[in-house]
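Handout for the seminar on molecular recognition.
Each group receives one record of this type.
Step one: identify the two inputs.
Step two: read the structure output and locate the region that could contact calcium ion.
Step three: write two sentences on what you found, then compare them with the reference statements printed after the record.
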Amino acid sequence: MIGSGQIVTKGLKLSLDAGDKNSYDGSGNTWYDLCGNYNTTNYGATFNSNGYFVLDGTNDYFQVLADGSSDFNKQAFTVEFWCNVDPNNGYDVLWSYDYTSHSAPYYAQHFRAIDTDGILFKLYGGTNKDGTFQAHEDVQYTPSKWTQLIWTISDGGSTKTSTFYQDGVSIGAQTTTSWNNITYYSQEVWIGKANFSTSFYKGSIAIVKFYDRALSVKEIDQNFNAQRTRFGV
Ligand SMILES: [Ca+2]
């Protein structure tokens, strides 16, 4: 079901695709990682045979790993989604590998849509939500359509750049020159929820990928063009 063109594979650690029968064949609670690394467990999401899962915004989510330590604890990375966000009057968390509880220091890898007004992303990085570093937030995007959403962090030592992309195009970048490394914890890696009760994602998710490096603009465009036809984008 992969469209024309090749997906970037350098640094690819997780590749879930509900439209590829090698990743999900329509039955069972395991969403298989095409990289063979992190077979992911489905907690409640409904499969649609057109090649995606629907999450209800109430209690549906996926668990990639029970403890992300040593696997997802990266200082540079890319998280890619092909999804259709249904604004849920709250927080629609796409990807979460965060602190143990919803208290300081809060977030690490936290990629979510903020849809109280329909058009915001927000995420945090670093060691303290309101302290040493708050990575990148309030980037406008367009919800309620099939779309490719990507978040990259590039690591240049103390200089790091966070960039959001929608449909292959940068929609906001922020460079910080005094970034402490992200502190990670022995915590679950989740798709569709975080460690607070109002975090459940509402909408559809077809593809999730994680790279252990920041993809370039050219590579992001390559991934976009490889699969845009499938989603009518
Ligand atoms: Ca449910």
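Reference statements: Residues 159 and 177 are 4 Å apart (CA to CA). The first strand starts at residue 12 and ends at 17.
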